[in-house]
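step: validate -> pass
step: tokenize input -> pass
step: predict -> running
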Amino acid sequence: MEKFEDSVIPIIESNSDNFTNVEKRIASFFINNKEELDFSAQNISNQLYVSEAALSRFSQKIGFLGYREFIFQYKKTLNKETKVVEGYIKEALNTYEELLNKSYTLIDSEQIKRIVHLFNQKTRIFVYGMGSSGLAANEMKMRFTRLGMDVEAITDSHMLAVNFVRLNENCIVMGISVSMVTKEVLSALDMAKKRGANTILVTSKKPDAEQESYDEVLLVAVRKNLDYGNIISPQFPVLIMIDILYASYIRENKKQSEETYGSTLHVMLDKNL
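step: predict -> pass
step: emit ->
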């Protein structure tokens, strides 16, 4: 896995909840198609029974200037080599590889820098998550605490509701809801915003403009369209982003991070932890 393929598929998937019915039909075609075709706007519009204008609107909604730019990138996705999957081991490994490729596509380096800058500005970070997202929240707490940061993971629905009284403008609240259906986490993020805290949503689905009241929306790779997505840990895409934030924070605060990490490592070795 020395090279990563830059795919437009995760970009389409992350916008799926914002599509009209016509756009969902267009999205489904491009996600599921595996063949080299005549991708001219006229030919695709005839196949899908949609207008060429609809293809253009779809392309613009997912961030391209128009259909021509979208299809140029889409063809690159089709031209990548695919592996023949044999057995559960290869199925799992190929699924992980696809998630890594999708994560590579979704990463916004400028956004990562902004989030790390927030980490350096604020005095406390709360990480909200439930279920498998709660496991990822605890992993983030453990890793960043070893760098000397004040990070607390909250994974209980009652504590999510009442924690808002501890929040102020010196806090960051990062909520993890990959599916955007964990109402407790989303509601707690809204309350945090009202208390003046900076809010970061980690999700696989880009919210509509009306819903997007967060300072940052950190997109992670979606699993629902992976052929074998049910055989890997659901928090894996979130852990990828946590690792990227961790690496970026260390790079930004190299000397301090190394000294603090070294100190905690010595303590752990002394206590045989």
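step: describe -> The chain has two domains: 9-78, 108-270.
step: cleanup -> pass
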